[in-house]
Amino acid sequence: MLEELLIFTRGGLILWSSCRALGGAALKGSPIDALIRSCLLEERSADASFSQDTYSLKWTFHNELGLVFVAVYQRILHLLYVDDLLAAVRKEFSQIYDPKRTNYDDFSDIFRQLHLEAEARAEEMKKSKQAIASRPSLTASQKTGPKARGDSRGNAGGKKGGSGKDDSDGDSGKEHNANGTFKGQENGIKDNSRARDVVVKGKENGGPKDNGAFDVNKLQKLRNKNNHKNNVPTDNGTKKPSKPAIKKKENRVWDDAPSNKKLDYTDPADERGDEVTEHVVINQGESMMDKDEYVSSDSEEEEVEDGPKKKGWFSSMFQSIAGKNALEKSDLQPALKALKDRLMTKNVAEEIAEKLCESVAASLEGKKLGSFTRISSTVQTAMEEALLRILTPRRSIDILRDVHAAKERGRPYIIVFVGVNGVGKSTNLAKVAYWLLQHNLSVTLAACDTFRSGAVEQLRTHARRLQIPIFEKGYEKDPAVVAKEAIQEASRNKSDVVLVDTAGRMQDNEPLMRALSKLINLNSPDLVLFVGEALVGNDAVDQLTKFNQKLADLSAVPTARLIDGILLTKFDTIDDKVGAALSMVYISGAPVMFVGCGQSYTDLKKLNVKSIVKTLLK
Fold it and tell me: What was the pLDDT predicted at 401?
């Protein structure tokens, strides 16, 4: 049963609702609001359907008029007529639509008729499918019927002396018994013996002389013969060559002038690393987070080709002046294919590039081009707007404001860093700590990577150089308990921020993902940051999807905590291959809050959305 059909403009003005017009029950929750927030505004309008709570939603657009048609029905029902009904409603409503009109109560009778017709067509289609599905079984029985009758006739013929034509051979036809059943058994025995004879003959003709036995001695002789040909000594009694003497690596000497310069720059400390030395880095300058990045405003952009030019100069000029009819999908395909290829060369995951192009096609199909407007420029503008909407954060990412708000409530602000192995979680955690110190905030580090050897020592070195406290319990401890004790210690010491370092883990490592889920659920951090490389392509989709899925599946609470933000590392190594940022934001819906772009503590900056979009489409 259809719960509701809603018609509204892209600006959000509701024109007609089946619940309001026909007196239906109101929907539970806000599934249509969730559709707009999670799908239509996120350039996922090319998806087939959307599910929210107990409802499934399908939709279609009228791009020329700027209308959206949404059908809502129960998820457990598989309504076959929804797409047909949406197309019919779209066609009928577009004929009576007037931009100056807001009341469409007269459409209720039309909708009732369209609904009944769509249900009737769906029922008729269902019956025809059932009839087609039942037809092969009947034909099978018809095929077996004559065969059975032929067998009975063959048996009868056997009684008469084998005059009937059956599948038996000539020898069995000459010899017959009074009872046809014994005759059939004799035929079967003869057929089987003949099959065995064929197999044995095939063995004798195709196999070796000893009926297929494997001759090990012959194989050894052939192997030794090949070894002698290639002058390769065999292993029988030969001595193994002695290993060459290993030369000790020496320092390289340039221009025959030995250098006594010290190459070890690590700070001297005891074996626990508790000793604070004179080589403490207190200030390396202003962090790049506090510097504004400007983007050049040159508008010299490469336009996407529409495909091979087949029209002459006069027809192209006339079309530019007069405009074009409503855009069809076939008109958009060449420009969208070029855009998809361009996005993939910028390291955007193939799945994401495909969905983006489908979404842009859905938003442009049916629109009319204006005068002197090319399809390529229209597609490029639509894609640019879509990328800006995706990459622009939907909520505030001002961490400093949130830290001060938590400080006023008398508790520390907790950030947990998660991610796969080797992406730079500990290094970028130290960069974030340095940035917070520059804003006069007290920071405590929590060494919750109790899995990787050297992780605690690495974080201890950063804490010593930045002169900030660190809470550690060593290795092979429960990271969730270590994080809880670190937060309690930071609360007693009046620390403003607690940065929790966790072990790197692959997205399909269930024991480590279970431990991470426990840490997040037990300590309820204010921010869960996913640390990912800017070098990844298609794997970014898999990493973030499975991280969020595991955190949701393994959560012990009904409302699971998922990834809140992204820290993109190694951004200085990718040149213009910035597509990982788009892939991660699109698949998770979380904003990029930090970008790591170097080796020092100051190399941390904000994501410049306009710069990324310009680079992707360049």
Answer: 93
